Amino acid sequence: MPTTTIVPPDPSAPITKAVIAAAGSGTRFLPATKAVPKEMIPLIDRPIVQYIVEELADSGIGDVIFVTRWDKKVLEDHFDRHPTLEDALAADGKAQYLAEVRRANELVNAAFIRQRGPYGNGTPALNAAPLVGDAPFVYAFADDLVSSTVPFTRQLIDQYRKTPGVILGAQRVEKDQVPKYGMIETDEVMRVTRIVEKPTPTQVTSDLVGFGRYILPPEIADILAETPTGKGDELWLMDAIEAYMQRGGPVYACPVDDGRWLTTGDPVNYLEALFHYAMRREDLGADFKRIVRRVARDL
């Protein structure tokens, strides 16, 4: 791999685009995902992926590139207009539902491309590079949510302004959770010094876990193009980030502030996310808490 030194990133570079990796198979949710993409499984009355798009929009992101595959056209349909449904809702005087249906289409400018190349979480970033252009961009996994007072993408952008480079979304976890994740070690200014995949608790001194939300500089595409496939013959984004570090590129962690990361990648964590968002809904929270208390009495 070439050893060209990374050019220092521009902290004032505009960040207006995001890429959402949505080409996974959702195996852990079968048989539901036989016909419905995992990203479209609802959390209450919105699909999982819409929570991410709302966060991006609330953070000033105007253009979102979805990297999908052949059986996920329903994603395109969800973020498009539905004139027949809209006309029916308008005719029935259902203004609230009409506004919600239209809102999904109005959040961002959405583009959709098909994933091509090796399987792996680095491939969507590589595929989207021609559309992203020569600017840093937000990269999000379609099953990782963040519930926070300040939208987490805004937190990532603010971190980039202070410490430009690769920015890794991070969450502090209990020590017994360390072996489940890729752990991030940093110095006192949150610059990443080491990334360890699923270590034992004694192998790391950090309690920071990285998850699927990043700001990536444009150079990452060239590095990904040169990165060989790794474990499972997949193209791993973290392999490219480590190569970026080796070439002098700065990488910083951005822990979630006043909030928490919620993955929906498996049924158990999905249920926790569902409970979290339901309890915080003004229109549903009180009733949902009553149901939870009633169910808890039967345990």
Overall mean pLDDT? 91
Radius of gyration: 20 Å
**SS field, number of helical segments:** 10
User: Helix and strand succession?
Assistant: EEEHEHHHEHEEHEEEEHHEEHH
Give the biggest sheet. 9 strands, mixed
Class based on secondary structure composition and strand pairing? alpha/beta
Q: How many beta-strand segments?
A: 13
Judging from the principal axes of the Cα atoms, what is the shape? globular
Beta-strand residue fraction: 15-25%
Low-pLDDT segments, ≥5 res: none
- Distance from first to last alpha carbon: 57 Å
Helix amount: 25-40%
What can you tell me about this protein's structure?
It is a single chain. The protein is an alpha/beta fold and about 300 residues long. It is built from ten helices and 13 strands. The strands form three sheets. Strands 1, 4, 5, 6, 8, 9, 10, 11 and 12 form a nine-stranded mixed sheet that branches. It has a two-stranded antiparallel sheet with strand order 2-3. Strand 9 (about 180-185) and strand 10 (about 190-195) form a beta hairpin. Helix 5 packs across helix 7 (about 220-225) and helix 7 (about 220-225) packs across helix 8. It is globular. It starts with 16 loop residues before the first strand and ends with a helix. The mean pLDDT is about 90.
Mind sketching the topology for me?
Elements: E1 17-21, E2 42-43, E3 46-47, H1 48-58, E4 63-68, H2 73-78, H3 83-91, H4 95-106, E5 109-114, H5 123-132, E6 137-141, E7 144-148, H6 152-162, E8 166-172, E9 182-186, E10 192-197, E11 208-216, H7 219-226, H8 237-246, E12 251-255, E13 259-263, H9 267-279, H10 285-297
Parallel strand pairs: 1-4, 1-6, 4-5, 8-12
Antiparallel strand pairs: 2-3, 6-11, 7-13, 8-11, 9-10, 9-11
